[in-house]
Amino acid sequence: MTRIAVITPILPVPEDMTRGRFIYETTRALARQADVRVFLTQAQYPQASWLQPSRHKSVVMADAYSLPGIDIETVTYPALPLISRVTNGWVSGMSLLKRVAQYSPDILIGYWTYPEGAGAEYVGRKLGKPVVIGALGTDINDRHGINAWLTRRTLQAADRIVLVSQAMTQHAIQTFGVSPERCATVVNGINTAVFHPQDRNSCREALGLPPDAPVVIYVGRLIEAKGLGELVASATKLRQKHPDLRTILIGDGPYLETLKGLIAAQGQQDRIILAGGQLPQTVAQYINAADVLTLPSWSEGYPNVLVEALACGCPVVATRVGGIPEIVTTDNGCLIPARDTNALTKALDQTLEKAWDRPAISRNMSRTWDDVARETLHVCRSLTR
After folding, report:
1. Furthest-apart CA pair in the chain: how many Å?
2. Rounded to whole angstroms, how far apart are CA atoms 146 and 152?
3. What DSSP element (H or E) covers 73?
């Protein structure tokens, strides 16, 4: 049986169970088809607040951290904001080397290009094992300056790169000079046991939502680049036509406090609800209770929340970025330009007004995580024969 070491900094955590869901579901499915160990790499910053990263919250999980269905080892390495960026790949690799060597894998997968992918490549070279980089979206989109250089170097050093959309594959080739023959497109799947049509009224009752009010939801990280400022502005405008509108934001992230301020400034605390991070089963309830799910991101890879929403039969409004046009059609939703509040408001209004064939939307979404794992495993085995 193929032994795979998965190296990643992102998995669901108690504070946000939506975080890293794609990586978790992929590795859990891989573990049903191969021998897999996940090495959760964690940059450990000094305790002083001024030495914490400004763009994200530093979370370090204890050694006992676990998730159902996968074997996890936590590995920490020292880091400093900005200062250690160039060396983080090498330092993470040094921290991983002994632990990964003890596992003795046939191949390594680094989910997140830099620094974890670079750390995986360091370990792979030392052990004489091939390395696959799993690029997720944010880790290769909008890279500039030193980040772009580090990303290019990591991608070009990989034996194979697995990307989650055709758009991302073309981006890796055109922007970072990766040869097409080293790229494989493996789009995300869904957990059909969780994300499937449910009775709308029952879901609303369970969640305490009014039976007849229009409901818009967002699910994902709370960061500015997800277009959440535009969403708050649009939800406020929409209440002029839909006074009972509820807008529910599910997730957590560094933009939370800013969001609270934006919502309060618009006087929308009673109608724009910050629901926090939720387990997948509860997310599926919210999706089935909603009239539309929106993702007004500035950039994306292949956002799984859209596929999950469509699997539940819920139409979507999303921006025309990354792999989103590969998911959204006129039969299941609406595409809009990024950073355009007026376009978002108009599209949400039209989607709320339209009578959608929700069973038909759901029927077209059947790709599972086992399909994703099977294709990923094929890429791995092609390098170990």
Report:
1. 63
2. 10
3. strand 72-78
Residue type, 280: P
Gap between the Cα atoms of 366 and 311, Å rounded = 7
In degrees and rounded to multiples of 5, residue 373 shows phi and psi of -65, -40
CA distance 263 to 247: 11
Q: What is the pLDDT of residues 137-154, one digit of tens each?
A: 888 887 889 999 999 999
**∠ CA(208), CA(210), CA(213), 5° rounding?**
140
3-state helix, strand, coil in the chain (%, to 5): 40, 20, 40
C-alpha span between 248 and 213 (Å, rounded): 12
Cα 11 from Cα 32, distance rounded (Å): 18
Q: What is the pLDDT of residues 83-103, one digit of tens each?
A: 788 999 999 999 999 999 999
Mean pLDDT, the chain, whole residue set: 92
Segments of 98-214 assigned E as strands: 107-111, 131-135, 160-163, 183-185
Contact assessment for residue 56 and residue 43, using Cβ atoms and an 8 Å cutoff? no
Tokens describing residue 78: 């020292």
Residue with tokens 């590795």: 27
What domains can be seen in the chain, in order of their start residue? Answer: 3-189+368-384 (3.40.50.2000), 200-363 (3.40.50.2000)
For residue 107, the Cα-to-chain-centroid distance in whole angstroms is 24
Give the pTM: 0.83
CA distance readout (Å), 7 to 4, 40, 52, 77, 352: 10, 6, 23, 13, 42
| Beta strands across the sheet bearing 292-295 | 272-276, 246-250, 215-219, 292-295, 316-319, 333-336
